[in-house]
Amino acid sequence: MLIVPRLGSGIPLVARTHEMRRLRAAFARAERGEAGAVLLSGDAGVGKTRLLTALGEHVEASGGLVLTGRCIDVREGGLPYLPFAEALAPLGSSADPSVAAAVRLRPALGRLLPQGQGLEEPRPAEHPPMTSNDRETMVRPRPEQDLGQLQLFDAVLGVLTEIAQARPVVILLEDLHWADASTRNLLSFLLSRLRAQRLLVVGSYREEDVHRRHPLRGLLSELVRLATVERVDLHPFGTADARKFVEALADEPMPADVVADIVARSEGNPFFAEELLATQTECNDLPAGLAEVLLSRLERLSPDTRRVARVISVANEPVMHGALAEVSGLGELELDEALREAVQHHVLVVLSDGSYTFRHALLQEAVYGDLLPGERSRTHAAYAARIRARPQGRGHDAKLAYHSMQSSDLVTALPALLRAMDEAEKLGAPGSALQHVEQALSIWDAVPEAERPEGFDELRLLHEASYFAGTSGEPERAVAFARSATQALKPDTAADRAAKTWRRLAEALLALEGTLDEATAAIDRAWDLVKDTEPSGTRAWVLAGRAGFLRILEQPEAALESARAAVADAQAVGAAAAEAAALVTLGTLADSAGDPAEAREWLRKAQRKARDAGAPNTEMRATYFLALSYDDHADFAEALDHVTSGVARAEETGLSWSVYGLELRARQLTLRYLMGDWPDESASRAGRGVSSAVAARILAIWSLFVVARGRFDEAAKLVAGLRRHWTADMQIPLSVGDAGIQLAYWRGDRAEAVRRAEDLIGWLERIEPGLLAGIRVAAVGVTAAAAHAADARVRGDQATAAAAVAAGERMLAHGRMCAVVGQPRSGTLGPEGRAWLARLEAAASCLTGRGDAEKWAAAAAAFGYGAVYEQAICHWHEAEALLAADGDAGAAIEAAHAVAVRLGAIPLRDAVRDLAHRARVELAGVEPAAPARTVADPLTDRERDVLERVALGRTNRQVGEELYISEKTVSVHLSRVMAKLGASRRAEAVAIAYDRGLLTAPTAEHA
């Protein structure tokens, strides 16, 4: 679990609960008189210092004394005992009489403390400080030094032991990998004599710097054998925690692909993530400060080792020993020694196949970026020559293209890129194929015409680029490439090629919102080019595409004619994939005509034919409409089976983020929301490299889950961040707009919920009046308006109540209009539409008074086709209406509560429990005397966390320690809480919160 609160300075404190718990436990033992030590290891930047800072704050808050010392990297001149001298320095000038006395009694401390800090005797001249030569060469003290050193060691232990009798002492020693021999000796002495003192010693060091020959390694192996010493390894964040860390660092919501890139490049290292986020650079640029930190590790290595590192950095992948020997030019012995040094110093790692790679990818970036241009080009050329001389295998052409491009050998690079494009497509990697064809386009004009591969020209490359962009989740770029292709058409271009180009543009445009007119014009251009020609594969595809457009344009007869003609042409020339595309349209037309059995027969036939023809895009289109056929008739289980198999097929073929790969994934997520099969966070993540609009489509649906689960702060960020994508796809505002209304409603801001509902309805009326989904929006909006009016009536604010009722009536009229003029796919309003219409009428019954329980019961029954969460919402409102009419609300309360608990729908669960408390209904597993939080809850999650701890009697400082936030931040949260609750004191705020049901009585565990 990751906690990333913000301090007053704005810098995040990285605290990991598991490691922090172990450090606090060690301090707790020291408080009890069980002295101990902790050795904290981790890579540079992983968060050791911040963790120790948090421990120090905890110790000081508990009344302990914290002494901190740091080793530094000093190459010239020795600084013996530096961390201990720094840590103990405050003792010599302490105003505490007992501390000063303890120091004066130990004159040997004069070797560590500056002169004049209360010592009675000067530092003994016969025992001078150690020199740099001593620090570098000493294994054990010379005999004449033994006595003086022992006196010093004993003085350090004695003064710490004596001070610890009055208060626990924690000494923090950072960066022990730079510790000199004297410091290591004193540390060993101190840790070996830890017994019953109230003392804790914590030392940190960089694991990657303690190589096999490092002098600290032997000491560590001895120290960890001591019973009083434990080791805590601080590892980089996992992917999920790293993502949370980056999102917490950002001042505003960031695109998912940017977050994913930072997470991937940082490999979970917090410092690296912060540096990358601070600059938000592109993948080829490394922040200068970070590059310097990384490169400093190589400066101490031998020239041969640095050369090997540079050679591997150019490879951009793990490298075998043979390749290194050939490209580096080093002899076998020199290469072995260089590799051994690099591995021992944790610069390189050896993989299971014997290849070498950098321990951290950012180090590879830094080394590569530090190469001189000529050095870089020559090394790439050497790799390219080696690849050309080897037998071809998987990835051969991609590697050859990469190194040839980087060494400016464009004649070799161009055909290699095109072969790599074909290989990537076969492997189901359209994103990689797109990168290859884009690179080919970028160098096309630079390669002499005579050197260009046969069968390719710029028009074909643009066509391929458009296709791969569309299938890898970048619809905007697919359109851009397709438009460029139409502009590249020449008067002498064959009609067949020109028609294919215009059809590609039409298909690409269809994936974007608001481009139907342009797309229709494009397919008409394609049809004009082939309509008078003989049957061909191109003509069959154009007819099939045209049939789909005519169906969208609500011209079913013309669509049917075009689809049948496409089937005939395809069968005449053996174009099975084009025939499958036409069969899909025949199936959708049958569905619209009210014949689902015929529709499913056509769609299954299209599925089989497309799979046999190797046309996965058409296969997924057939699967999507087959699922939709069951979905329209509320056969959710069957629909979910089909979309799930479609998603699996899309992943198998590498088309997860193609047009219908996205539609299948989006529908799968929606069905799981409706059916109560709520997934984890992984379902919300789009693939890397997909456009922000594609990612927004998934996140918009996910926002409904986040609100329903009560994660309001996260939901607020999603709702705000996705607003800019409303125009990209109609489904985005429908989902995230709904989530925004519900978010405001559950937070108790009913006025804001009404405003958002009216805003969304107004937007829909401008873009597409009479949309069937408007029924749902209206139903949610009227529910909010009714609650707003009821709240206002309780306050005696009749004007606000009247305005809320008027808003609800406007939304009611809109929903009823949508039910009349909307166009269902199957021709008649299906179960889902009828259920939302029933909920709309039930909500309307609440506008001017208590709701109609029978209408809410009818709405709940209407959602009985499988929409379990919406049904539970209706049962809750039904129970409210029954309770208001002195009816028996028990059954409705229990039905709603069971679903809310199973789904983890916290806001609904708490609302139902509050209702159960008022109705005196006992729920299984719920203490009847403990009222749940009221629905009208103005507090944020963090404000509630603070108030709960204040209610337990915690001080601001103690609250800050428990939540890992500063005392100042706690004060700010409390000020906001008191303002929201109308309280003037902390105690009054707690009392009001209990009275309003915002806090529950503390359990013995929390008390």
TrEMBL record:
<dbReference type="InterPro" id="IPR036388">
    <property type="entry name" value="WH-like_DNA-bd_sf"/>
</dbReference>
<dbReference type="InterPro" id="IPR027417">
    <property type="entry name" value="P-loop_NTPase"/>
</dbReference>
<keyword id="KW-0547">Nucleotide-binding</keyword>
<feature type="domain" description="HTH luxR-type">
    <location>
        <begin position="932"/>
        <end position="997"/>
    </location>
</feature>
<protein>
    <submittedName>
        <fullName>AAA-ATPase</fullName>
    </submittedName>
</protein>
<dbReference type="InterPro" id="IPR041664">
    <property type="entry name" value="AAA_16"/>
</dbReference>
<dbReference type="InterPro" id="IPR000792">
    <property type="entry name" value="Tscrpt_reg_LuxR_C"/>
</dbReference>
<dbReference type="Pfam" id="PF13191">
    <property type="entry name" value="AAA_16"/>
</dbReference>
<dbReference type="GO" id="GO:0006355">
    <property type="term" value="P:regulation of DNA-templated transcription"/>
</dbReference>
<dbReference type="GO" id="GO:0004016">
    <property type="term" value="F:adenylate cyclase activity"/>
</dbReference>
<dbReference type="GO" id="GO:0005737">
    <property type="term" value="C:cytoplasm"/>
</dbReference>
<keyword id="KW-0067">ATP-binding</keyword>
<dbReference type="Pfam" id="PF00196">
    <property type="entry name" value="GerE"/>
</dbReference>
<dbReference type="InterPro" id="IPR016032">
    <property type="entry name" value="Sig_transdc_resp-reg_C-effctor"/>
</dbReference>
<dbReference type="GO" id="GO:0003677">
    <property type="term" value="F:DNA binding"/>
</dbReference>
<dbReference type="InterPro" id="IPR011990">
    <property type="entry name" value="TPR-like_helical_dom_sf"/>
</dbReference>
<feature type="region of interest" description="Disordered">
    <location>
        <begin position="114"/>
        <end position="141"/>
    </location>
</feature>
<dbReference type="GO" id="GO:0005524">
    <property type="term" value="F:ATP binding"/>
</dbReference>
